[in-house]
Amino acid sequence: MLEIKAPVLSETTKVARVCVEKDQYVKKDDVLFHLGDFCFGNKEMISAINSELNGKKILVMGNHDRGHSIKYYLDCGFDEVYNYPILYKEFFIFSHEPITYLKAPFINLYGHIHGSPNYPTFTKNSVCCCVERWNYTPINFNTILLNLERLQRQMETALNTYKPIELQEEK
Questions:
Q1: β pairing state of 126-128 and 122-123
Q2: SS3 63
Q3: What ranges make up the beta strands (E) of 43-114?
Q4: Tens digit of each residue's pLDDT (9 = 90 or more) over 3-15
Q5: I want to staple 37 with a disulfide (CB 3.0 to 4.6 A). Which of 64, 107, 111, 167 is the partner?
Q6: What is the pLDDT of residues 95-127, one digit of tens each?
Q7: CA distance 45 to 22
Q8: Would you state the torsion angle of the CA atoms of residues 67, 19, 26, 96, taken in this order, to the nearest 10 degrees?
Q9: pLDDT computed for residue 120 by the predictor
Q10: Beta bridge partners of 54
């Protein structure tokens, strides 16, 4: 995999449209990871949206993308397409669905769950990259790293100030 200084993550066609219309989020030398469910359109629509987007476009296929082949999406303008989660910088796993059984030291960045309150945006092992969580805007990878560091500091502070409850025996 290429060394990427600041990948950008997104999930749906709406984000693609925001990127095309504003052209302020994704620059020509960025790498744009789409974490599945890119577009509910035909080949011409997907190709048209992709042709207007900047950057190298990588698709991690979602459940709504799997009706087509990897070649289909390559023909639509994606530079790389994966049917399964991918490992980034030997530490981050980019996937469509959340990997709920993941343990440290890995961190899972995922889409799929949209606005479901059952999944927090950040945990110590995961980041929900659903567009509903990010105001339908692509996320700069450095923003994710900063928020993960902040969460880790908060957890360390909580552990350092934790005082166990003294149990009392019933008389």
A1: antiparallel
A2: coil
A3: 56-60, 80-82, 86-88, 92-94, 107-110
A4: 334 455 554 555 5
A5: 64
A6: 999 998 877 788 899 998 877 888 888 888 888
A7: 19
A8: -30
A9: 87
A10: none
In this prediction the pTM is 0.78
Q: Which residue has the tokens 């530079």?
A: 79
Structure tokens given for 144? 């994710």
130: which 2 tokens?
């659903």
Whether a cis peptide bond, with omega within 30° of 0, leads into 164 is no
Closest CA to 112 of 122, 133, 92, 97: 97
What the block records as the tokens of 101 is 């059984």
Q: How many whole angstroms separate alpha carbon 70 and alpha carbon 38? A: 13
The residues near 135 (Cβ < 8 Å, ≥ 6 apart) are none
- Whether the Cβ atoms of residue 25 and residue 18 lie closer than 8 Å to each other: yes
Helices 13-22, 43-52: inter-axial angle, 10-degree rounding: 40
User: What's the CA gap between 28 and 37, in Å, rounded?
Assistant: 23
Whole-number Cα distances in Å, 123 to 37, 80, 106, 108, 171: 23, 28, 12, 10, 41
